[in-house]
Design a protein that fits this description.
The protein has a five-stranded parallel beta sheet with strand order 3-2-1-4-5, sandwiched between helices. By secondary structure, the chain is an alpha/beta fold. The radius of gyration is 15 Å and the shape is globular. α1 (9-16) crosses α2 (22-34) and α5 crosses α6. β4, α7 (125-131) and β5 form a beta-alpha-beta unit. Helix content is 56%, strand content 13%.
Length: 142
Amino acid sequence: MANSLVLDASLTFRLILPGPQQARCQALMVQWIQAGQMLYAPALWLYEITSALCKAVHLGELTAEEGERALALVQDLNLELIPPDETQARLAFAWTVRLNRAAAYDSFYLALAESLSGELWTADRRLHHAVDRPWVHYVGDS
């Protein structure tokens, strides 16, 4: 396992909210913390998590109080958030073009993992299959 792990928002969201992948995400998080793994995310991770929680509240899947507690929980994960710089933007642009996508959000996670020579962990099956790199892991895999 790489020393640097990049976690995307989809994994984090499934970590904190009940669902079929929650137990797997929680087990991975415990394993990573016990192993002393360094956990990273691009700065947009916080925007994506906040937006997903607001959407869940808006749709009635969570109360506002549950959303606030969930937001506090994810901030307690102590992921190091990395702001974008010119290198990250160029890598993200290249990934976006390579994947033939219109938006670069997922590509910033890929760019960060690649630049750290680390692993990207996601709960986004489509992203995992689109990238097809050994350092990109889907939480549904054993």
